[in-house]
Q: What sequence folds into this?
């Protein structure tokens, strides 16, 4: 008898599960999918460059090598994504020496002061966010998001292109100025992906370039007077 009750309960449970799955299927059909061009914007509607859009649920082609250059005392690119197991080379295209380091959990390393192509490539095995710095130039900053998911990064005008139909619920987004170490859910409205940012979302290394140039110009003017 006890056995029969158990079987009976099992049948009910299975029926409930399949009903639940069917309902979820209907919900799934109702979910919106997205593809094509989108613009990442901040609270004021200003375009946000360097935002990483992660697209869970679609397949990705991954490369096993990446390059982050140092040009004009800036890491280039400022933001990049790689798959776990990728080797990254850090060439130095400047005449001055740089030293690259990271204290991030996903990858801790240091490349002592070097010129040109003298630094050994670095292997990034674990998923997670890696923040890079240079020991000599405090303003030099870059971010590598190590992830299995396919990604797109917004360009200077905030544009990203989603390559195929993607379930809107599965889109997440990350940006350096969000000050979080994990991507957050993407809020999408009218062809725009809205980020909770209200301050300058540009590469801060550019701001440094501008002020350095401005200072040089000012001192030049002072000397000319
Ligand atoms: Cu440097």
A:
């Amino acid at each position: 008898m006890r056995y029969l009750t158990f079987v009976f309960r099992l049948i009910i449970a299975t029926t409930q599960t399949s009903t639940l799955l069917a309902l979820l299927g209907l919900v799934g059909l109702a979910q919106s999918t997205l593809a094509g061009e989108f613009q990442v914007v901040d609270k004021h509607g200003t375009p946000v460059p360097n935002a990483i859009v992660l697209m869970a649920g679609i397949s990705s082609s991954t490369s096993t090598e990446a390059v982050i250059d140092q040009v004009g005392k800036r890491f280039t690119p400022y933001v990049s994504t790689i798959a776990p197991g990728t080797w990254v080379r850090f060439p130095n295209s400047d005449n001055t020496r740089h030293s690259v380091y990271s204290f991030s959990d996903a990858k801790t390393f240091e490349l002592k002061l070097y010129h040109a192509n003298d630094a050994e490539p670095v292997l990034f095995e674990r998923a997670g966010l890696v923040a890079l710095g240079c020991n000599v130039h405090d303003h030099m900053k870059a971010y590598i998001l190590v992830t299995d998911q396919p990604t797109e990064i917004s360009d200077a005008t905030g544009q990203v292109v989603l390559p195929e139909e993607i379930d809107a619920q599965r889109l997440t987004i990350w940006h350096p100025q969000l000050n979080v170490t994990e991507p957050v859910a993407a809020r999408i409205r009218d062809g725009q992906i809205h980020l909770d940012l209200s301050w300058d979302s540009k590469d801060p290394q550019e701001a440094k370039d501008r002020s350095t140039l401005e200072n040089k110009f000012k001192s030049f003017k002072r000397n000319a007077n």
